[in-house]
Amino acid sequence: MIDTLIVGSGFAGLGxxxxxxxxxxxxxxxxxxxxxxxxxxxxxxxxxCACDVESHLYSFSFFPNPDWTRTFARQPEIRAYxxxxxxxxxxxxxxxxxxxxVGAEWDGTAWDVRTADGETLRARFVVFGTGALxxxxxxDIEGLDRFAGTAFHSxxxxxxxxxAGKRVVVIGTGASAIQFxxxxxxxxxxxxxxxxxxxxxxxxxxxxISSSTRRRFRRFPLLQRLQRLSLYWRHEALVAGFLHxxxxxxxxxxxxxxxxxxxAGDPDLRxxxxxxxxxxxxxxxxxxxxxxxxxxxxxxxxxxxxxxVTETGVVTADGVEHPADVIVFGTGFKVADGLASMAITGxxxxxxxxxxxxxxxxxLGTTVAGFPNLFTIVGPNTGLxxxxxxxxxxxxxxxxxxxxxxxxxxxxxAIDTRPEAQARFNAEIQDRLSTAVWATGGCASWxxxxxxxxxxxxxxxxxxxxxxxxxxxxxxxxxxx
Length: 481
Ligand code: NAP
What we know:
By secondary structure, the chain is of the alpha/beta class. It has helices at 11-22, 40-43, 75-88, 177-184, 211-219, 221-236, 239-243, 245-262, 267-273, 290-294, 352-355, 389-409, 419-433, 437-440, 462-469; strands at residues 2-7, 28-32, 95-97, 101-106, 111-115, 120-128, 150-153, 167-171, 190-194, 201-202, 285-286, 299-302, 306-309, 313-316, 321-323, 326-329, 343-345, 374-376, 414-417, 477-480. The strands form five sheets. Strands 1, 2, 3, 4, 5, 6, 17 and 18 form an eight-stranded mixed beta sheet that branches.
């Protein structure tokens, strides 16, 4: 039996592994379904892919990188950083690639973790770092299977297709599309962008970091720490706007001013791309080249609903056919499934899918009542609309380690979350979420489930999350002897 199995080798899995190792809990193995590490930063290789949180903040606190070449690093650099993390902390030989976890059963003393290859691994603790956004969501559009061109999702970008001179239809205007549309627009013959809901877009303070600044960061690590701190607090200042939509409506003025500036000579297009909901209700996007790309002569923004796909293009509800050689889906991910799609059985034979029938719920996003010694990094209600998820990952890892230490201290078999503590916690955050902009801003988003409940976001400051996750509250947990 192994002490800890970690599932996934993105920021969450690697972050947990480093901290376990540092704490002397070296008996762990990372299971990774892919053939390389990096999670979302391995999967998303679409043109223009980058992070919209500054890299000096969107990185591990324990492994600062003085060599970021841009304020907002692009995907290859972030992936390389994760590879470097694995090297620096000697994690490579602790990862088993090509191993997909499909289920896990608690038998009263440990977890039997099953893989797609039919193998069973036994572990005391299981840490899921499987992320929330990796299953592409491709809409079920009539006739799509008859399309004679190529169609793919942004997270499964087909680099074998040369887009130069092609007529490309892009569906979706979310965080991914606003990055790849400007990257491909100059090459394609024609780009028709299907916008169902116009997002709020703000300018991105993205710039190269000079070699002298990088040298300074290398020589004076304190400078880099100060830079990180300043970014951290600038992001935290946004929280008030998300919780109090009145404040956000004032900030919205910045978005309107940006629209007026970019579309000064084109009021029709400006109206087309002006959002009709309160800023922040959906993720606030940042780009300097998205709006300018929409003004290109070879780009058209189409707002008519898609009714079907033919062999040669996309037909809208008004009967117009938009010819296409390639269709790219920037249509996001299946969020709700997450861990519930794995066959996980906890105490008394309770299945996670049943426990989460009304939607995923955990205590501080990390532990789930009835599922002892199981941890979900980036679990329910840990997502952020305003800052770095890496901060949340590190906070959750604190909780995981404290829970493990507590089990050992009590010479117990396991730790389980008390259902009443989990229920109280969720009632508290749902109460806070009910008045926040995500619920009241007048939009539909993947943050909300089909009942309108927000199971994805943390409604508050990240320092309050950090404070609550630093140590487990013994009153919220039960020790299993
Ligand atoms: P997304 O934000 O969910 O956007 C999906 C887009 O597709 C939306 O514009 C949506 O329209 C549209 N859409 C979905 N189904 C459609 C349909 N049937 N017909 C027409 N349009 C449809 O997905 P994403 O852009 O892939 O981003 C997902 C998340 O990944 C982000 O919210 C963010 O958390 C993360 N991400 C982060 C970064 C980063 O820089 N950190 C970059 C990329 C992605 P509606 O708005 O009308 O639903």
